[in-house]
Amino acid sequence: MKIEKAKITDNEILTSITKKAKAYWGYSAEQIQKWDKKLTISQDYIRNNSVFKLVDSDLIIGYYSYVLKDEKIIELDNLFILPEHIGRGFGKYLLLDFLNRIKKTGIEKITLDSEPNAENFYAKMGFVKIGEFETSIKNRFMPIMEMKL
Predict the structure, then answer these.
(1) What is the pLDDT of residue 136?
(2) Which of 5, 38, 44, 81 lies at a CB distance of 3.0 to 4.6 Å from 62, suitable for a disulfide?
(3) Which range marks the domain in which residue 59 is found?
(4) How many angstroms from the chain centroid is the CA of residue 28?
(5) Which helix (H) or strand (E) holds 30?
(6) How is 38-101 classified by DSSP, letter by letter?
(7) pLDDT-derived band of residue 112, with 50, 70 and 90 as boundaries?
(8) What whole-number distance in Å separates Cα of residue 64 and Cα of residue 80?
(9) The total number of structural domains that make up the chain
């Protein structure tokens, strides 16, 4: 098991992981299709952002990515695991790798917009909900969370 920088050519597998992980939470295929643009990881995205993949026996089973907002704030943009690996500690493994990587940079705060079903995961890892916003699905609210370092 290793975490390594994603290659530009990993975009299709990362997109597939993202869509499968979203569907895991019970969203319909129609809804996933509506979110297609937001759930697609392009080669340009990988080229222009920090993207790290979790590899197990040459199979990519998850990834995370982050975006520098300014010199003191980073946004955790994505953290997804293939559904068959959810609940086995791989999300925590990825998040701890991310936190260790960021703590070395002088960043003071991490923000993220959490999948509502993942809010408890992030809270257990030390993130605090600071707000929320309504999504394209009526009465579905996306928690805005942060962690101060």
Answers:
(1) 80
(2) 81
(3) 2-148
(4) 20
(5) helix 29-34
(6) HH---HHHHHHSEEEEEEETTEEEEEEEEEEEETTEEEEEEEEE-GGGTTTTHHHHHHHHHHHH
(7) very high
(8) 6
(9) 1
